[in-house]
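Input/output pair, single chain:
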Amino acid sequence: MAKQDTHNFDGATLTAEGMLYNGFVCQPVVEKCEGCERVRSFEGRDFCYSYPQPASKWSLGRCNFATHVKAETQAKVKVNPLKASKRASKGK
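Output:
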């Protein structure tokens, strides 16, 4: 469910291609956009106010505008090479 119209689409019109807003045709959001804070409702349909074609942002992986998806990062353990060589020489 999209947030109510807290971001106004003043001057926007709904066309057969999507929502026409500031010279851009905005496509409706895709299923992967559910829960994103950037999704707003306009005339009963949900649109992203950050990017006009949400499906293309998800085509290559994760949308960089998505606020509901956390990036998975693996913590790298930094190894001091001097300590590692001393441990190796001690046989540990």
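The beta strands are 13-14, 19-21, 24-26, 39-42, 45-48. The radius of gyration is 23 Å.
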